[in-house]
Design goal:
Number of domains: 4
CATH class of the largest domain: Mainly Alpha
GO molecular function, one term: heat shock protein binding
CATH superfamily of the largest domain: DnaJ domain
Low-confidence stretches: 1-16, 86-105, 124-143, 380-402
Keywords: Chaperone, Metal-binding, Repeat, Zinc, Zinc-finger
CATH architecture of the largest domain: Orthogonal Bundle
Structural class: alpha+beta
Protein name: DnaJ domain-containing protein
Order of helices and strands: EHHHHEHEHEEEEEEEEHEEEEHHH
Radius of gyration: 38 Å
Mean pLDDT: 71
Largest sheet: 5 strands, mixed
CATH topology of the largest domain: Helix Hairpins
Strand content: 15-25%
């Protein structure tokens, strides 16, 4: 705990032992006020005597407080930059509340606030280490708890409702101290700062005032041995597996609110889709396909040259909206079905296609290097010739592979 007798400090610095407040806080000389406060908060937490038990932590904490108190005040900072900074070429009247004469060439700094009071005035009356992040500690799973989780469901799941299993970071009671914030084997003691009353008294300008004890928060008890797992907060980030119930009729991008541990998680339901498979021929030439729906099937036209994972939207063909009039949209995710095994005829057609294909990004199994070069770089004035008696053999057509494919396709399509 920071000694209470340091409530008033008068610090005198000569030109030989000036402190560089900017260096102490690790900031640039043109740092904004918000950057100064952020740097002070980060370092003060690190060197606060309640957390850091090193011998030099208290002195460092006091030094940080001094630097912040001067640099956070516009007038003190201006006087310090002019007369007291380590990089100044000359020194004049004392600044920052000092009282040096005009020719003293000295920097003086006076304050009536203890480092502890300064820190608590800035970051809270009770626990300065909670700040804006909430009363829980970082753990092996990180510091931040999940705020929103994206869940992908199918069209059928959205129509009928479903359960989804999620693994998320949530804030929950500390597993080690069971939520009381005290190390196992210890208990809280009567607060030594308010003698267990929960209030402190002070005499200010002839008035006797009482206020809530800023060490125990008015509880009258003090955690002398905080749990090392949750830093005395009683709560920490943990990993949980939980089931989320998705109601029937949920729409795309709808947000569901659920309670997980001590956290409130918002589940964003998106990408409600129906997977539809089409053949290679349909992808190349186009066609139609029947898509199952809630009330009836829909015939959808597939344009030529459709790629896999193309998404289409059927307006008004989706699920009836929850608590709203009308129906939502149905999204289709196109997938091209490629057969794992080819018959002899399909394989020959595919090889002939490979011979005339000009944009193959690599090689094709069964297509020889000679065929590839001949196809890609045909010489002008030359023609493919076939031996006599082979006119009826496959591949001997006057039009080459294209004629062969046309003949074969005419039989099957």
């Amino acid at each position: 705990m920071f000694p209470m007798h340091l409530s008033r400090r008068f610090i005198h610095c000569s030109s030989k032992n000036l402190k560089d407040y900017y260096k102490i806080l690790g900031i640039a000389k043109n740092a904004a006020e918000s950057d100064i406060k952020k740097a002070y908060y980060s370092l003060a937490k690190k060197y606060h005597p309640d957390v850091n038990k090193d011998k030099g932590a208290g002195e460092k904490f006091q030094e940080l407080s001094e630097a912040y108190e001067v640099l956070s005040d516009a007038k003190k900072r201006r006087d310090y930059d002019q007369f007291g900074s380590a990089g100044a070429s000359s020194f004049g009247a004392g600044g920052g509340g000092g009282g040096g004469s005009a020719g003293s060439r000295q920097w003086q700094y006076t304050t009536h606030r203890s480092p502890e009071d300064l820190f608590r005035d800035l970051f809270g009356d009770f626990d300065p280490f909670k700040g804006n992040r909430g009363a829980y500690a970082e753990s092996a799973f990180g510091f931040d708890a999940a705020q929103q989780v994206n869940v992908k469901i199918s069209f059928e799941e959205a129509a009928r409702g479903c359960n989804k299993t999620l693994n998320v970071n949530v804030v929950d009671d500390c597993w080690k101290c069971q939520g009381n914030g005290v190390s196992p084997g210890y208990t809280k003691v009567s607060c030594p700062f308010c003698n267990g009353t929960g209030v402190t008294s002070q005499h200010v300008q002839g008035f006797f005032m009482q206020q809530t004890c800023n060490r125990c928060g008015g509880s009258g008890s003090f955690n002398k041995n905080p749990c090392m797992e949750c830093e005395g907060h009683g709560r920490a980030v943990t990993r949980k597996t939980c089931d989320i119930s998705i109601p029937a009729g949920v729409d795309d991008n709808q947000v569901l609110r659920t309670q997980l541990g001590k956290s409130v998680i918002y589940v964003l339901v998106n990408n409600i889709f129906t997977d539809v498979e089409i053949s290679v021929a349909q992808a190349l030439l186009g066609g139609t396909i029947k898509v199952p729906g809630i009330l009836q099937d829909t015939i959808v036209r597939i344009p030529p040259g459709t790629s896999s994972h193309t998404q289409m939207c059927l307006k008004g063909k989706g699920i009836k909206r929850l608590n709203q009039a009308g129906y939502g949209d149905q999204y289709i995710n196109i997938k091209i079905y490629v057969p794992k095994k080819l018959g002899e005829i399909e394989k020959r057609i595919a090889l002939e296609w490979a011979k005339i294909e000009k944009n193959t990004p690599g090689t094709v199994e069964g297509k020889t290097e000679t065929e590839a070069k001949t196809t890609e770089n045909p010489k002008q004035g030359t023609e493919k010739t076939t031996s006599s008696g082979n006119d009826n053999k496959e591949g001997g057509d006057d039009n080459g592979g294209a004629g062969f494919i046309k003949k074969k396709l005419s039989k099957f399509f």
